[in-house]
Design brief:
Layout lengths: L3 E2 L2 E3 L9 E3 L3 E2 H38 L13 H13 L9 H16 L4 H4 L6 E6 L8 E8 L12 E5 L12 H11 L11 H5 L9 E4 L12 E6 L2 E9 L2 H15 L7 H15 L4 H7 L11 E6 L4 E9 L6
Antiparallel strand pairs: 1-4, 2-3, 5-6, 5-8, 6-7, 9-10, 11-12
Helix pairs in contact: 2-3, 2-7, 3-5, 3-8
Length: about 325
């Protein structure tokens, strides 16, 4: 293949942005870089023009409707807030859902979003192919542990495609409350959808009776191939006898936002509760504690996840009273 061509391309030689071809040989790589640089420059000028027009229109709208010009406050939700929020969501009778599954989906979303710190759309677009359930043998001879891993592939890709982030969820066994245990809610949805490939694996009781083959340390619980592309969070649709959960349509961000705000009002929070509140809380903890590298390593280590090693969370200011963050669990042996 020749390393050069007999012409070069310029975007400045013709009025109106046309191309001019000259007969001067130039390397192919240099041609591509020059063309890319020129096009980026022209696009930047056009975008700058559009931005100026948009800002002029926005200023007129602000003046016309007497809107505030400052940025919206980024209110963070920490673990203490999340516990109260989840308890309100599960026990309140003041909020009516079109389908009972939405109540469970909202709780699971808050747990996954607060745990991972991802943008709301990442856990919201979770599909069953992104979830791996594994039964692990307890090295101390106790009951088998359940490891759930979920992968977020729907992260922001403005600067290019990013590597998928895999998050392992620890199984909280001896905690006095399971309100913050994603296992309970996620396995509940998996059983409700009959997603496991094994036809007789349809309840938590059957899951606890499973055994691992001698000589092996784990058993992966496969999901049905037909359900791998089905979203975990799905919308409700109107039917002839009421509402039912759509088999394939995902839950929209607008619906999730309205549900979160409604439950926040019932819980008595002073600030509106939005999905991004969980991300802000996680980000604050990561930035201030410096523990963003400790938590994933802690989960992947062999430290037992029980009432003795899972001791607490860091405290930071939240909606009104001091509270900890969901994203920085610490153990006695690992400083956070």
């Amino acid at each position: 293949m020749p390393s050069s061509i007999g012409c070069s391309i310029s975007v400045e030689g013709r009025e109106g942005g046309g191309f001019v071809v000259s007969g001067q040989p130039i390397p192919l790589g240099h041609t591509g870089r020059s063309f890319d640089s020129c096009m980026r420059g022209r696009q930047a000028k056009r975008l700058e023009e559009i931005n100026r027009k948009i800002h002029r229109i926005l200023r007129k709208l602000v003046k016309k409707h007497k809107l505030a010009e400052g940025k919206r406050e980024k209110t963070a939700m920490y673990v203490k807030d999340l516990v109260e929020y989840l308890q309100t969501n599960l026990t309140t009778t003041k909020k009516r859902y079109t389908h009972g599954r939405h109540r469970i989906q909202l709780a699971l979303f808050c747990q996954l979003a607060g745990f991972s710190g991802n943008r709301p759309q990442a856990p919201l677009n979770l599909r069953y192919r992104d979830i791996v359930v594994t039964l692990l043998r307890d090295p101390n001879g106790g009951p088998h542990r359940i490891l759930i891993e979920f992968t977020c592939e729907f992260t922001k890709q403005f600067l290019g495609v990013k590597d998928a982030n895999k998050f392992p969820l620890p199984e909280i066994i001896f905690d006095p409350s399971l309100i913050l245990s994603p296992h309970v809610f996620l396995l509940g949805l998996i059983f409700a959808d009959r997603a496991f490939a094994a036809p007789n694996l349809t309840s938590a009781g059957q899951l606890s009776r499973l055994d691992i083959r001698p000589g092996y340390q784990q058993l992966e619980l496969l999901l049905k191939p037909s359900i791998l592309d089905v979203p975990v969070f799905r919308k409700s649709v109107r039917t002839g006898y009421g509402y039912d959960i759509s088999p394939y349509e995902p839950l929209s961000y607008a619906t999730l936002l309205s549900l979160m705000k409604a439950v926040g009002v019932i819980a008595g929070f002073l600030q509106p509760t939005r999905p991004y509140c969980l991300r802000y809380g996680a980000g604050n903890e990561f930035n201030q504690s410096g523990a963003y590298h400790v938590f994933p390593n802690l989960l992947q280590s062999n430290i037992p996840i029980n009432g003795q090693s899972l001791v607490g969370y860091l405290s930071l200011p939240n909606f009104g009273s001091g509270g900890p963050s969901l994203s920085c669990v610490r153990s006695f042996s690992v400083p956070c």
